Amino acid sequence: MLPIYTGTQVRETEATLVDAGWDRQLMRKAAWGLAQNTLDWLKSHGGVYGRRVLGLIGKGKNGGDTLWALSFLAQRGVAVFAVPVNTSADALHTEAMEAFQRAGGRVVTTIDPATDAVIDGVFGTGFRGSFNLPGYLADHNLVIPETAGLIACDIPSGVNSDTGEIPGQALAADLTVTFGTAKLGLCMGEGRQHTGEVVVVDIGISSELQAVSDPWWVAEQSDIQTVFGAPRWDAHKYSRGVLSIVAGSPEYPGAAVLVVNAAAATGVGYISLLAQPPRGKAVSDKVLDANPQVVIEDHVNEKATAVVVGPGLGGTVRGNDIAATAIQTAIQRNLPLLVDASGLEILDQHVFSESIPAFVLTPHTGEMHKLTQRLAPDLAEQPTVEQAAAFAQRFGVWIVLKSADTFVLSPCGLHSVHSATTSQLATAGTGDSLSGMLGAAMSTLDSTAADLPDQLFTALAAGVQLHSLAGELAAADGGVVVSTLQTYIRKAKQHAGASS
Questions:
Q1: Same domain, 182 and 295
Q2: What total number of domains does the chain contain?
Q3: Same domain assignment for residues 257 and 111
Q4: Is residue 500 part of a domain?
Q5: What is each CA distance from 469 to 113, 170, 175, 422, in whole angstroms?
Q6: Side-chain half-sphere of 500: how many Cα atoms within 13 Å?
Q7: Residues forming beta bridges with residue 309, ordered by sequence position
Q8: pLDDT for 420 beyond 80
Q9: Tell me, what's the pLDDT at 213?
Q10: Which long-range contacts (CB under 8 A, 24 or more apart) does 12-19 make?
Q11: How far apart are CA 122 and CA 317, in angstroms?
Q12: Residue 379: in which H helix or E strand, if any?
């Protein structure tokens, strides 16, 4: 898992070094990294010598970083220019401006149409409030050529480095060169959609960042390998996880098919579908047509190691009764439990008072709001992610919050984010597939292990990552069709090196 920090956490970390007299060194390292990555961009787009690079310069440290970087570029034969934005030239970082001018840089009030790259150095991670940079440029007749690359210094100006929100308007970068670590605001929300490629420059604060107590985390492909990789040579069907699924109804039989398809694609050892006759026959027939290896039962399997409850049950009295019974069975047998969709509607305070080793809820944002309004109305006015995090800690559950970005929020304060990689996963049924994948991952956990929270956190984050990667592969192959997503789950495993 890769740690990700908020802009506030990074600034607080840097502040200790600045107080110790390292301010100039930090700026020079950042500027050097920005210059080197700009050179790399120029090399990949036609060469370096004689090219033209212009900086949009604010009066803060980001403007200073950019001016220093421009001075380094000038030493490599690049013609460099600077436009002060929302300030005057005499208010810019003094030492950096002197270096820029010594290197032959010129302050200008227009952008030459022959400009090859523009560096956005107006605002940094400390920016709060609202600013419309595209509007400012338009009002001042500053036209960035369509052929010019746009490189953000640390973060696109106007992006909140803690949340990814853009209260005003920001320029969409082709490349963001960020310092020390990727910031949370680059990984979620509108911020992620404005970063382009993100490159992290080491400025020497890694050991200080390790002391931060509550970073966010992002799953890596190595986590997919850990959770969904090939089984041991001596594995058997029961050691690879036994997943009992309570899903589908005569009205929504396809939900059960999608959950089972996705679980099977992960490589889980044994799948049991709870489909009580006679109404369950419509569901079981469709599931067996797609996955003949599934065992149809009228109860949670005796050897189950995890239970998934909810997708496609439809909220009928019979469906609610089946879901409630399965949830109580999981509680009594101390089984990891995932509740989704219709199953969320039957949860009450009593259920949360029970001891479950791994209790996971997977609501989308609308379901999260309903759950909060019903069980914790005092949290309902908070932003959705904060609301879900507070709910998780209050009720001792794990929440996988599904939105454009997906969040894993734990009762113990662990939290991860996976940024949206394709909007095509915003399709009916993809949430059912995710439930099957996560349930399969949970079925392989050792619920008695002392490190179960860490295991579960990795399993959920890796499952979200694998689901997203499958969506990317499907989108690249003509689009996401949820009934075929299991094919891309298998391909995604291969892509991540989790298959052999």
A1: no
A2: 2
A3: no
A4: no
A5: 39, 28, 22, 9
A6: 8
A7: 246, 339
A8: no
A9: 84
A10: 13/180, 13/205, 13/208, 13/209, 13/211, 13/212, 14/180, 14/205, 16/208, 17/205, 17/208
A11: 58
A12: none
- Last residue within a domain, chosen from 212, 247, 277: 212
* pLDDT value at residue 497: 85
Indicate which CATH number applies to the domain containing 154: 3.40.50.10260
- Is the pLDDT at 282 greater than 60, yes or no? yes
Record the tokens describing residue 434, joined without a space.
């995710």
Average pLDDT over residues 299-311: 95
User: 162 with 265, same domain?
Assistant: no
**Does any domain span residue 205?**
yes
Alpha helices, DSSP H, located in 300-381: 317-332, 349-352, 365-375
Boundaries of domain holding 362: 221-495
Instruction: Give dist(CA 19, CA 276) in Å, integer.
Output: 67
Asked if 30 and 65 count as a contact pair (C-beta separation under 8 A), the reply is yes
Give Cα separations from 273 to 56, 267, 278 (angstroms).
59, 16, 14
Output the pLDDT for position 239: 72
- Tokens 């392989």: give the residue: 444
Instruction: Examine residue 191 and state whether it is found in any structural domain, yes or no.
Output: yes
- E-assigned strands of 236-333? 242-246, 270-274, 295-297, 306-309
Q: Is 331 inside any structural domain? A: yes
Q: Which residues, in sequence order, are bridge partners of residue 199? A: 177
Residue 428 has pLDDT above 80, yes or no: no
Contacting residues for 353 by C-beta, under 8 A, at least 6 apart: none
Task: Quote the CA–CA distance of 323 and 313 in Å, as a whole number.
Answer: 8
Q: What is the pLDDT of residues 152-180, one digit of tens each?
A: 999 999 999 999 999 999 999 999 999 99
**Residues 193 and 231 placed together within one structural domain of the fold:** no
Domain-ending residue, one of 179, 212, 245 = 212
Record the tokens describing residue 163, joined without a space.
């949340």
Backbone φ and ψ of 74, nearest 5°: -60, -35
